[in-house]
Amino acid sequence: MNLRCVLFDFDGVLADYDKHVRVAHLAQAIGSTFARVQHAIYGSGIEDAADRGELDAQAYLEALSREAGAEITASDWIAARRAATRLRPDVMDTVERVARRAEVALLTNNGELMASSLGDIAPGLFPRFTARCHASAQFGTSKPDPAVYSSCLRRLQHEPARTLFIDDNADNVAGARIAGLHVHHYQTYTAFLDALAAYDLL
User: Fold this and answer.
1) pLDDT digits (tens, 9 = 90+) for 3-32
2) Residue 5 has what DSSP assignment?
3) For a tag site, which of 16, 44, 106, 169 has the least CB within 10 Å?
4) What angle do CA 181, 185, 188 make, to 5 degrees?
5) CB of 27 within 8 A of CB of 34?
6) How far is the C-alpha of 93 from the C-alpha of 46, rounded, in Å?
């Protein structure tokens, strides 16, 4: 099968992401409580709205600040996200192998601030993913909406039928399948390698 693009999710595939570390780091930086920051990020709906592109970076930070009870600057946010994020060396090494056979790109459910800050949060993505890192907010919707995959691929100038999408979230995988992409539900590194080999990408 002649695939031309492999589209990767970020958290849970290319990187390990620790929500507890992020919340604790940000709470300490702004002088708020763990519970209040956790609610602001994960319980208030603000993060989901930003992922769908309903809040730009400034509106997002202002909304989080109100919920957390203290000002959150872009620098605070980036530092906390960086502390909670670790690229997976084995997966990144495999990406380099895949890139010899197909273009590699990234699609993450995230807002504008994440999209503009990936170089600070995960510099090891670059230069491999330069100009091919996309956040859902850029397309006005989020995974698993099939429209987000279609919009991303139009920007990348690739066809769904020649693209493999990899995500650790089963719902996101199902949405990509509806959009016409080949899919792999990431659960283990070994199964990931087997899937790539089956698509002749290694």
Assistant:
1) 999 999 999 999 999 999 999 999 999 999
2) E
3) 16
4) 145
5) yes
6) 34
